[in-house]
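Blackboard transcription, Thursday session:
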Amino acid sequence: MKKLACFVLLLMFSPLLRAELVIEITRGVDNPTSIAIVPFYWSGSGYLPEDVTGIITADLDRSGQFKTLGEGDMPLSLPYKEDDIVYSDWRRYGVEYIVIGKIEPRPEAEGGGYRAYFGLYDIHSQQALLKKQVAGSSDTLRNLAHYVSDHVYEVLTGYRGHFSTRVVYVKASRVNGEDYYQLLVADQDGAREQELLNSSEPILSPTWSPNGKEVAYVSFESTRPAIYRQVLLTGKRQKLTGFPGLNSAPSWSPDGTKMAMVLSKDGDPEIYVMDLESGELTRLTRHFAIDTEPSWTPDGKGVIFTSNRGGRPQIYRMALDGSDLKRLTFEGDYNARGRITPDGKHLVMVHRRNGVFHIAVQDFLTGQIHVLTTTDLDESPTLAPNGRMLMYATKEGNRGILAAVSIDGGVKVRLPSQNGDVREPVWSPFQ
Amino acid sequence: MSAGNVVYFDFDQAEIRPDAQKVLAEHAARLKGTDKKVRLEGHADERGTREYNMALGERRAKAVRDYMIFLGVKNAQMEVISYGEERPANVGSNPDAWAENRRVVIK
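(Written on the board underneath:)
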């Protein structure tokens, strides 16, 4: 039996559109589900501007849960209608499931663009598990492909698909001997990268608004740190803080009305919560130690944070009035930047073991810590909104790259950038 | 001869080391009784998390500020800013580079 499924994917679907991030799967699950994405039939004229079949295939491969079939490994007759599926053919090829589909031009009267019909079929039971149609304007073919992936993934794994989500991240490079920082957003597969901000001064600590329409971050553009919020679509920005000292680590509340942050305006780095409507600040911590990296509990009723009040950085939780303080981590002498999984069952964090910084996950029920990564200098873990995958920043040589791992540690993916230092990925909410 | 304008720190520490005292004494002597202003830029090495390092960099710059106040420099003459691990002096990922990056620069 195959112990490791190793395969490499280059995300370059079209000569015109080149993804900035190249995604390589370095390890998949032991027994991936075998699935064939049969090339979708295009009933319009000319060629589609995106390889929809390729996008779906890459999505499912990257999840690590599936082993997809290349077109060259498929039976000769490739169906796009249910009636044309010859189940015995596919069974002979060892395929468990197939996805078939058809894309047609949508009449201008209905908004133009495309309409796709697709279905997921179980080869063994010879039954349709999913039949759907979806339509979108002419610039949404990639969305349409990710929509198919999301639904196929959900039917086969029971978890909502995360393929229509995006990632915001920071890239640092040197241009003519000067530092150049960019805040970038891209699809979770690295495609359609867009710049949100650039500066010769540091940009860091991005966080998404829960509706996925805004980001907040720290920018040193005024030569001092300040927290800003920015609308993705319009670029409209608002400066939230610019106090003397630290203005750091913004974290948007799950209901969208508040921002947790770190300010040192009163002396020591403390956790505050800002009401975004009134701008009013509530101070949550009062301690001479470093208190930083606030992140909300999924129910929005509490905040976890990093503090060295016990001598070394460890993760704590407290209620929104600062009460009910509880230390969450005890294993090791450096546990920081915690994030709680959407189901509230696990804590993901940066964990130092034998002097090496890894990403680890702690089970709240058992207290057990499981180290997920094998590299050093791993940081900034961020969870997909379905909690199944987490992305993080690591180093390769002297360069920062992004990588991803499944929450159970079975699947590993590298996302090296073509240039510059890429860091601080933050996975968007469902959109 | 000048002792320079950079002082160094141990990992996850913000204590003024004995080897920093000469540099700080020289700057204190230069600033004391004047209206001259300086900017104290705190930095951390790349190990550990970015936001924690931002706080650590500020700790280091404030430790330098407090030491200079002890030597007679006025608080108002000094501005503290932390760059955390964002502005390394040495971009390498090794113990020598890290030691070079755990610093406060007096500007």
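Lecturer's comment: Chain B has three helices and four strands.
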